[in-house]
Write a structure and sequence with these properties.
mainly alpha; 179 residues; Arp2/3 complex 21 kDa subunit ARPC3; globular; 81% helix; 0% strand
Length: 179
């Protein structure tokens, strides 16, 4: 009887892992598609480097549904593949720095339970811009680039709020993603 229970538990564990892996692959593909769409249609703003952060929708949902480990992996896969396909080495480097800082900030805020999805997304947008700007300062050996942060702060807040609102509604419409 005990060996049957162990076998059943092992099957359930493998089934859960398989579901999470399959969902992670789907979410990574969705994040890549959204990154591609964003690359095709840049925002018509006079300030360079400002984007909506469409892939943040997927990462935020992954944090809520799958946890940090899976969301982090999805984010890294997206950054690596879109970097290779669309932005090149330096674009991938900037995106990686922003993406890693962003996901860490979003997950830490999520774990506190004090912030809404919109607030977490807003903080993620700001952190992403900050990570990219710090990377630019290091690469160019010029701290004066940080003066650009005032513009990027408001851009990150605006796009983070917008993406957080969209993520909130999408998250509510996808109850079948519960694992």
């Amino acid at each position: 009887m005990s060996s049957q229970a162990n076998t059943k538990n092992e099957r359930n564990t493998y089934a859960l892992r398989t579901k999470k892996l399959a969902l992670s692959a789907i979410l990574a593909a969705m994040a890549m598609i959204l990154s591609y769409i964003e690359a095709l249609f840049p925002l018509p703003v006079p300030v360079p480097g400002i984007k909506l952060g469409l892939a943040n929708l997927v990462i935020l949902i992954a944090i809520y549904r799958l946890g940090f480990k899976y969301a982090f992996t999805i984010n890294c896969v997206r950054i690596f593949t879109t970097g290779l396909l669309f932005t090149g080495l330096f674009g991938a480097l900037y995106s990686f720095a922003g993406g890693i800082l962003s996901i860490i900030v979003m997950f830490l805020l999520y774990k506190t339970g004090w912030f809404s999805m919109v607030g977490i997304s807003m903080a993620g947008g700001v952190a992403h811009n900050l990570g990219q700007l710090i990377t630019a300062c290091i690469i160019m050996s010029n701290i004066k680039l940080m003066s650009y942060f005032a513009i990027l702060l408001f851009a990150g807040m605006g796009s983070g709020i917008l993406m957080g609102i969209v993520a909130y509604f999408v998250y509510g419409k996808l109850p079948h993603l519960k694992i």
